[in-house]
Fold this protein.
Amino acid sequence: MTFGERLSLVRKRKKLSQADIGKLININGDAYGRYERNEVKPTIEMATKIANALKVSLDYLVGSTDLELDTELLKRIENVSKLSQKEKEHIYITIDALIRDFNAKKAYS
């Protein structure tokens, strides 16, 4: 998937227009649309602004990873990484339990 295809996919998932993204990054919607159509490549600075506006990682947009991590999740991961090992273990246990409960509910519904 190209950079432009990823931009379009994420934007549509978030139910935003090209004009909406353009406003967030201080360009017009037509200029933003050129990125989605792969007509022009953004500078690193502009690509970073776009990633921040879409709240996804730049790695995802440029194709370095297929995992679409939103910036809120990344911030939480960063905060967890600063905790002690014991505190991390408590969080891991809680996350595992929540995922297990979610999967069980999904299986029975």
Observations:
- The mean pLDDT is 92.
- The longest helix spans residues 85-108.
